[in-house]
Amino acid sequence: MKERLQRLRLRMAEEELDALLVGSPVEDIFKTYGANRRYLSGFTGSVGWLLVGHDVAFIAVDFRYYEQAQKEAPHFTLFPIKGQIGDWWADLVRQAGLAGKRIGYEPQGVTVATLEAIQKAVAAMPSQERPHLVPAPPLVEEMRAIKDAEELAAIERAVALADEAFTAVARRIEPGWTETQVAWEIEKYARERGAEGLAFPTIVAAGEWAALPHAQPRNRPIREGEPIVIDMGVRVDGYCSDLTRTIVLGRPNPRLQQVYDIVLTAQLTAEELVRPGMTGEEAHMLAHRVIAEAGYGERFGHGLGHGVGLLVHEAPRLAPRSPDVLRPGMVVTIEPGIYIPGWGGVRIEDMVVVEDGGVRVLSKAPKVLQM
Ligand code: ZN
Ligand code: ZN
Q1: Which ligand has an atom closest to residue 232 CA?
Q2: Ligand of minimum distance to the alpha carbon of 333
Q3: Which ligand has an atom closest to residue 347 CA?
């Protein structure tokens, strides 16, 4: 954490910021909005603000979190707060020695209401003390995109558990099981074996429902011969995994086998050819080309992949028009798909880590239609 603060300060200096305010736009009950705060401090509570200056680092939390913040964020000075941010903002600025300085805030990390409350509190300060509030670029998101060894180890544990849960449950599914039943069996398996929770609600979509990339599981029995898309992930030590497989019960019809083979070829091609230095768009096009040449270009309507870490969707983006440059240490998904309304769909998703010269595939769940 200390090293992360030092790296952040170097970037803050480049952006001519004297400090950065980091929080979450809403109370982070489900640990999805407070990733920057957790990444910098280690604090896992649902509410709290970090104010990081060049030689100070404060964590502002209310009574519920005094002890937890001191334990989890030892490199931060506790600033106990009561009430809304407007009530204590001026005191924090003075105590941090930031009167009259440039303080960056994260546009994604505050609501309009919060920003207005801060601005109001600033306006009430004597004019020579007022800090200058400026929107900061996504400094912490950029840092989070490249994983250190400890983060990668947590991700690998989350990937391994997802592989295991998928494989164990997929082998047991029989005609007549409902989509919700499959989703619940996966969740149960993962929770019983150490997952803190799911990375996102499991998608199980059979038959024509598989044409919806983010389908909700239904109470509908699964039939032989239809595609079953299962997209799932678990959370281990704060880090997410993300895995998709498409399977079938009994024999696939010829069209399903054909579509599956195209998606698998596109997926393996991308895993073979993605390199550090490529943009997200270039990576996307590796798979898109294979699918387009097979005549299904219009049916691959989403991006090839996304970063995964504390959040299941984070930087970088592998998608048309994404300028993000892939770098060693990034962990991303490679997940092409073909979706045909009224018929169904196929998606295959692995997580990979970008290394010098290529990617290493982390996901090990079998890539076969019939389990
Ligand atoms: Zn997924
Ligand atoms: Zn994904």
Answers
A1: 1
A2: 2
A3: 1
How remote is the CA of residue 162 from the centroid of ligand 2, in Å? 13
Q: Which two tokens stand for residue 124?
A: 């009430």
DSSP 221: B
The ligand minimizing its distance to the Cα of 200 is 1
Q: Which ligand has the nearest atom to the CA of 308?
A: 2
Q: What is the pTM of this model?
A: 0.95
Query: How many A from CA of 184 to the centre of ligand 1?
Result: 17
- Find the 287 Cα to ligand 2 centroid distance in Å: 15
The per-residue pLDDT string of the chain (371 residues; one tens digit each, 9 = 90 and over) reads 889 999 999 999 999 999 999 999 888 888 888 999 999 999 999 999 999 999 999 999 999 999 999 999 999 999 999 999 999 999 999 999 999 999 999 999 999 999 999 999 999 999 999 999 999 999 999 999 999 999 999 999 999 999 999 999 999 999 999 999 999 999 999 999 999 999 999 999 999 999 998 889 999 999 999 999 999 999 999 999 999 999 999 999 899 999 999 999 999 999 999 999 999 999 999 999 999 999 999 999 999 999 999 999 999 999 999 999 999 999 999 999 999 999 999 999 999 999 999 999 999 999 999 99
* Gap from CA of 349 to ligand 1 centroid (Å): 6
Distance 219 CA to ligand 2 centre (A): 24
Task: Give 337-340's long-range contacts (Cβ < 8 A, gap of 24+).
Answer: 337/213, 337/244, 337/263, 337/300, 337/302, 338/259, 338/262, 338/263, 338/291, 338/296, 338/299, 338/300, 339/210, 339/211, 339/212, 339/213, 339/299, 339/300, 339/301, 340/211, 340/259, 340/299
